[in-house]
Design brief:
homodimer, 117 residues, mainly alpha, 3-stranded antiparallel β-sheet, 6 helices, 3 strands, 62% helix
DNA sequence: TTATCATATGATTAATCATTCATATGTAGG
DNA sequence: CCTACATATGAATGATTAATCATATGATAA
């Protein structure tokens, strides 16, 4: 441990713990990709809309604004990253939030917001 | 409500709820920016390291690899988005996770990972 | 007050990404 | 089958961003 600061021993302990708990590069990449998927305002808005319930593409488009192609691309990104899932119902594809972890993250992110203006 | 699919009445209810609960554009932008801040693997890795405890810049750099300048830029992005906070201790700046919401999000994201390979 | 150490910052460049337009796919009804 | 409808996809381009390099700041110690 390099003596870079005045408490290198403490930091040594922290680093040891951090490295022991550190996910693999692949796991980090997956986590990061998921955060990236929900880090564009238009995609986040879609996710917030879907947090109220299942919707077809046209109604998602109506709820968030924008055009069909853009929304479809955004849905693909969200789905590829397992943020949302889809099922077919006749001519329509219905989208919904993938699981409770996502709902929890959205909820926590909203809470963290309180404290900004 | 446009009759885009076979259950427009149900969707109407969902959209009504979604729009009622929808944060402002500004709030969405803030949330999105925070997700973006933790959506780059190198920054996420820094955050995962800091989740074990407070560290100075040089030790963060040692823990995650990379060079001092890059890490410093990444720390700035995380700090600007209130993901981490800092305090000075003599010659050093010590960084730590900003609050419990962030820790919760990281924990939830790790859980969501289980189910991938 | 000068030298050194720890960290931050500005500018540049290369890579990544979102949006758009045009078109394709798949489904249902006639 | 043929048409209309709902959604998806590919290519192109303009915008955003991360990494790097060089330099600046701010603190300590001699």
């Amino acid at each position: 441990m390099k003596n870079a600061c005045e408490t290198p021993e403490e930091h040594e302990g922290v680093i040891k713990t951090a490295l022991a708990d550190m996910p693999s590069d692949g796991a980090i990449a997956t986590m990061a990709a998921r955060f990236k998927a929900i880090s564009e305002p238009s995609r986040l808005k879609i996710l917030l809309a879907l947090s109220a319930g299942e919707l077809c593409v046209e109604h998602i488009t109506a709820a968030v604004g924008g055009n069909q192609s853009a929304v479809s691309h955004q849905l693909k990104t969200l789905k590829d990253n397992r943020i949302i899932k889809s099922r077919r119902a006749g001519k329509n594809i219905l989208y919904s939030v993938d699981d409770d972890h996502i709902m929890t993250m959205i909820k926590v992110a909203k809470e963290h917001l309180h404290g900004d203006e």
